[in-house]
Automatic annotation (TrEMBL):
It holds the Pfam family FliL. This is Flagellar protein FliL. GO terms for biological process: bacterial-type flagellum-dependent swarming motility; chemotaxis. Controls the rotational direction of flagella during chemotaxis. It is found in: Cell inner membrane; Cell membrane. The keyword Membrane applies. One of its GO terms (cellular component) is bacterial-type flagellum basal body. Keywords: Cell inner membrane, Cell membrane, Cell projection, Chemotaxis, Cilium, Flagellar rotation, Flagellum, Membrane, Signal, Transmembrane, Transmembrane helix. Residues 1-21 form the signal peptide. It is a single-pass membrane protein. It comes from Sedimenticola selenatireducens. InterPro entries: FliL. Belongs to the FliL family.
Length: 136
């Protein structure tokens, strides 16, 4: 009886350790990806419509998966091109206000997500930030 209890306890310990090891492997696979930023440089400077003459801005692109940075870097020229076309089509007076800047940010984000979707089949970019923004 004592031997069977000891054998049962050993089997229980062994089985439990196997379950915990399997559980750790599952948790590692579900580990969240690391957020990262990509700076589109140099600054973007374009003429705008209306009374204002130009906009100069620095743009940071955020992804929630650091592994996607190489794709963003590879397609940076296409992303810059899209931003240049978008910015040059703006009325200077509209993008000077806080609401105008935020509206432009959202439009630019949607536009750049579209570029990445067309290039790699995934939107890749999760957010866009203007780190410098000047309209004159």
């Amino acid at each position: 009886m004592r031997f069977s209890t000891l054998l049962l306890s050993a089997a229980l310990v062994l089985f439990t350790s196997i379950l915990f090891a399997a559980d750790w492997e599952i948790d590692d696979a579900k580990a969240p990806a690391t957020m990262a930023y990509y700076e589109l440089s140099p600054s973007i400077v374009v003429n705008v419509k209306g009374r204002a003459k130009y906009i100069r801005c620095d743009v940071q692109l955020m992804t929630r998966d650091e592994a996607k940075l190489p794709a963003i870097s590879l397609h940076a020229p296409a992303l810059r091109h899209e931003l240049i076309l978008l910015l040059s089509d703006q009325q200077g007076t509209d993008i000077r206000t806080s609401k105008g800047k935020e509206k432009l940010r959202k439009i630019a984000l949607k536009s750049l997500k579209g570029v990445m979707k067309a290039q790699v089949g995934d939107e890749t970019i999760d957010d866009l930030f203007f780190t410098t923004y000047l309209v004159q």
